Amino acid sequence: MVTDHRGAPGRSWGRSPGASYPSPALAPDGGWCEVGLDLRKVEHFVAVAEERSMTRAAARLRQSQQALSMSMRALERELGVPLLDRSRRGVALLASGEALYADAVPLLAAATAAVGRARRADRGEPELLRIGRTPAVTGIEVTEMLAAETLIVGAPPGVCALRCVT
User: Fold this and answer.
1) pLDDT higher for 21 or 77?
2) 48 lies in the same domain as 61
């Protein structure tokens, strides 16, 4: 039997590919409610927010302006808040739109990273660790610091050597 986050009977996760999946969120009354967020709509919203124009965003996404407008209205309906102020001169983000945009960009980046991580794991590839440094710290120093840290904590699975690439 499938249960939700409260232990009550819930829905099966056997949905069609591309369907949005519900996740618990805090409702205005302090209880929990179900929120399904379609990442395609979030991607559409980010394009509109960055272009400040439905026409330019639609061209960027290679879809019709009508389809993009419908996607934005559906997102607003699903969230229960208006996100955009539409006018003949373009599109402006409302406070709710600004708030969503601030979270949407890292959300899409995290989703992309998660897909890449899952695909690398399926191929048996080790995790990647990318470290940025300033010219004041040499690559050798970074490697020495990482080697010392892995001796204390223990090397993560799949890490067999530390290598500095400049």
Assistant:
1) 77
2) yes
